[in-house]
Specification:
73 residues; mainly alpha
Length: 73
């Protein structure tokens, strides 16, 4: 079952807010998620952000090329 993009964004935003508050456990519906440390929570946020990029069709790579030229002086 694929998760909708808006749901992924909502989950990520909630996780970021709870992390900022110092909370290590979340109640999502009838499911309780508990993180042992901040690194696990950071990994979960990174995973959600990667899923959001894939679902929205964006990536971290830039499509812009910038040239810098000079006369060598």
């Amino acid at each position: 079952m694929a998760v909708d993009l808006s749901e992924l964004i909502e989950l990520r935003d909630r996780l970021v807010m709870e992390r900022g508050r110092g909370v290590s456990a979340l109640q999502l519906g009838d499911e309780r998620i508990e993180f042992k440390n901040d690194a696990q929570m950071a990994a979960a946020i990174a995973d959600l952000e990667a899923r959001i990029r894939r679902a929205s069709g964006t990536s971290l790579t830039s499509n812009v090329v910038r040239f810098s030229t000079s006369k060598g002086m």
